[in-house]
Fold each of these.
Amino acid sequence: MDFTFATEQKFLVLIADIAFVGFIVATLFGGIVAVGARQLIHAVLGLIMSLMGVAGLYVYLGNHFIAAMQILIYVGAVSISMVFAVMLARPPEDAKAKPLMFATKIGSGAVIALFAAFVVGRAVIAHPWVKAATVVKEGTIRQIGENLLTTNVFVFELISLVLLVAITGSVIIAKRGRDNTDQQGGGV
Amino acid sequence: MLQNFVPVLILFLFAAAFGLGVLLISSLLGPKRPTAAKQATYECGMDVQPDARRPLDVKYYLIAMAFLIFDVEVIFLYPWAVQFKSLGLFGFIEMLVFLFILLVGYAYIWKKGVLEWE
Amino acid sequence: MIPFEYSLLLSAILFAIGCVGVLVRRNVIVLLMCIELMLNGVNLSFVAIADKLDSAEGLIYVFFVMTVAAAEAAVGLAIVVNLFRHRDSVYADEINLLKG
């Protein structure tokens, strides 16, 4: 990995490296905000920041399509529906008086999570990763399309069933709630 | 390879800085003489009666759900479209089956009246 | 470009942040968000390994994980909304009707 660049190229590489650190910081800081924020809407904004940081890291890993997909699905759709849920299910005002979390809870949670991360990380790093025998390095989106519709074609069809069940289930659950409130005369 | 994207990043940063800078300059330089009438939600007309912070109707949420699911569906069209020629008829039929199964969901939410807005 | 182990370390940290959130928070919406964070950590390691091995398999799994995350968000948030309409609460420890 030792290329020789012209001076302006080196400058651009330096900016790319700085942006890389920025994406990592955005990912971690956004994650911490998403976990620790008192206001729900701040937590959603932190989640969006973290997801954007991960999308930037996907670009650095050479998968532009996955990065675009991350932004379209997670930031564009999942986070927006989170915002809708926050607006629909606003907790009562007196809930703020309750203590949010205790230091012991955070400490024990962090210890357990770090232990799990340590075990998984040790296993992953200890595993000898060998490259696949036949490697065709072309555009990742072409590889995905080829693989998705030949090798994994039944999984692909099952995904449409998963999506069908998800839309049907969410409509059934949410609509039943609305009909009940309409009967009570509490509908907005 | 990656440094080719730096101009795009600079464009993003410049756009964000421009938007934030305009907001900052107008909040610093603009005259601020608030009166009660100016602070109202509408300068004329009735006062807004209920608090703005109340739960929304669930039909907004149902529309968001439909968007979420069909957004994911459209994402799956991209890799298929790029590889369309080499996948041939088999891939085309598979994608038609995929779209048909989701069309059932579309027909269902249409039948349930999710798409109607009174 | 990125060292392989660093990507895995970052994904492990992201997973740990989400895990801590699931363990300490009580709000169901925040719990769902923390699950999304954990899935993101897993996705990051999938993409890193796919990049390391030059294979598209990991990217396919990212597709599946993202789809399941979207479906989970749709159904989970519908349950949260319905729960709030019936019980006026979004806190996990107050939803104990099924507790023996």
Amino acid sequence: MFKEKAEKIFAKNYKILMAIPIIITIIAVIFIGVKYQQTGDLFNKDVSLRGGIAATVYTANLLTEEQIKSSLQVDATVRTISEVTSGKQLGFIVEVSDLNRDQLKERLQNLGLELTSQNYSVEETGERLGQAFYRQLLFAIGLAFLLMGITIFITFRTIAPSLAVIFAAFMNLTVTIAIVNLLGMNVSTAGIAGLLLIIGYSIDTDVLLTTWVLKKKEYGSLFQRMFHSMQTGLTMTLCAIGVMLVGLLVSNSIVIKEMFTIIFIALIVDIFATYLTNTGILWHYCKRKNIT
Amino acid sequence: MNKLKQLIKQPRVVIFLIALILCFIAIGYQFNTKGVAISAVEQNSTVYLAGMRSPGSDVSPIDREKVIGINNKDISNLKDYNEVIDLINLGETVTFTTTSGNYAFIKTENLGITLTEAPSSNLRKGLDLQGGTRVLLRPVSDVTEDQVKDIIDTMEQRLNVYGLTDLTIKSAADLEGKQFIIIEIAGVTKEEVKDLVAEQGNFEAKIGNETVFDGKEVTFVCRTGGSCVNLVNPSCPISGNGRTCSFEFEVHLSPEAGRRHQQITKNINVVAGTRYLEKTIDFYLDGQKVDSLSIDQSLKGIEATRITISGSGSGETVKEATKNTIENKNKLQTFLITGSLPTKLEIEKVDTLSPSLGSVFIANALLVGILSAIIVALILYIRYRSIKISGLITLTMLSEIYLILGVAALFKQNLDLAAIAGIIASVGTGVNDQIVIVDEIKRGVAGTLKQSIKKAFFVIFVAYATIVAAMLPLLRAGAGLLTGFAIVTIIGVTVGILITRPAFAVVLKSLME
């Protein structure tokens, strides 16, 4: 009963449903384009991609962001790290591009902190290297995308369904970057690793869908097959979202948090990309090719 | 019971079990560790002369030599060590009992030994978890592969002089074809080490404009022993705004250098009323003059193959000046012993990471893992209403984590925070694959179980291929700093598809029959 009703609604409205994610993707692309126009970058880069110093101070001293910033006297990002289970503050992370190692240490010490090799970590990236990282990691994303596309084409050997999968990956990537920009997040090398994982991670459901639709015709009607694959796919995505959510709520490492936030966003975007657009394209394709 | 017996005989299950056992051996978890592990012994230091040595880089973490007793008192951790060693006065005899023997020596100010808590397994923690220094260097000019090897060898020797063997030096080329050298030194490292690796270390001794000898012609460098090496003026006289000390040590030269000395000095006059020649011998390091010495008249026109080299160091206080002088002396000696690098290097990135939160991060990662497993088990139970299925997937997930750790230990792969994220991500795809298998078998409308499993594996292979494809560019992009993450993720999904997935399918099949 439910399935029949759902099928009717879907058959009638699939073009509109399919259009929603496409419009969102276009908006995301424009949004990223404007960002690129204004800043020359696709997203906000942290010091590992821009050049600069990220210093971590492990201290029980409760310093406010304002105190730290005013002592540094330059543009800086300050974040605190705390133990999730107890809420106890473990320390803070400072990112600056306009100070050198010694200046930064001196200004932090002006806050009354005693910095030793035990409680102080410094990661310094030269500007040229940061820029090279950024260029190459963008290139890596492009290359990964291309390799993924080739894999998909080899797998399905049909143009429209393969393009549908590739579009889903494209949407996941662009909408995620747009949301990351909206949230004002700074992306580091780890964040880019997260973006790369999206390419591999989020198209599982699309591959599953396409396989059910094109390669398992004996399993029932077209809509039934899509529905089955959605049951499986949503379970998969839900599990992954659960894991990412645990990671980003419970982890106290900013590396893990950043990666998981990005993948978490992408997984949610993927639900729309797969079950609105990709199903729509496949539905349209199958109707034209008389696949039932 | 019968089912279990049958299962254990299945080849895929056997492979899985053997893999688990191999990983258990590779990880080599130690339930009670004794003592503190030796991580570095400085050359010619007190303990070095007593016979202790740095561990080789090929020794696996749990096989490291450990100090287990001092003067017959048991040592089980760093706290014990510090307490016992602090109670012993300078000049008193100390006997270290280690896992390989006994070493006796007289206690001095700096023993020259670095110790860490004894590792409890062969899992290698990344720098962000255990603390350490990472330096990324770029040769200024184009270098050949041989030169890169040469650079790495020289650096290794330089660091070994400081007793640092717990390190990796590797070259990495990035996607734009640039060469990099990455040095990772575990544990707390002295500031001076950073200068040591980056400097080219080209030494030259000149009289006037003529080169008498360079670093390559030094055949022996005196490093210990009272007469041939010393601080010239230990009181560090006031100079300028601070104090300056100087050092001298003797080196031996090749015969050709000696003859050059004879040729150059024979025409230089003695300054009237003194014992010295008109010209000085000047020492240059990487084109910068470090010091000048007057030449005694007795050396005029002599084939000198034993020569004294000097230098200095300054600071605001006597202590600081002395420290800098000793550092400069050690550096210069190291350069003379290990030779210069074929090209100048530029420091592109320096990370100094504190070890203090490593254990907090590890405990936290474990918590994330456990909570994730619970969440996944819960979601799967709600979906399938079967403790068997949800439990089996969760168990498989945990065993997969263990297998990934085992393979990482086997390949000596460092596990840093990014790698942990990679493990979680690849185990996540594993869960996805298992859901595909379960659904395929449950809905096995057409054909046998075997066919259903075959169909499920089609999707699994495509997913595997795309995730590996996505990780491949990372092996090189960004000077290899994300290589660890990419490798661990690839290990993770590969272990999954080769070992756990097939075993899972077989066990699931038997559960559902």
